[in-house]
Amino acid sequence: MVSIDERIKAELEKDDGELAGQLSDTRGINDMVWDAYRTGPRRWLTLIGITMFALTGVLIYLIVKFVGAGDAHDAVFWGVWMVMTLMTILGMELWSWMQVNRVATMREIRMIALALKREQEND
Question: Over 90: is that where the pLDDT of 28 sits?
Answer without folding.
Answer: no
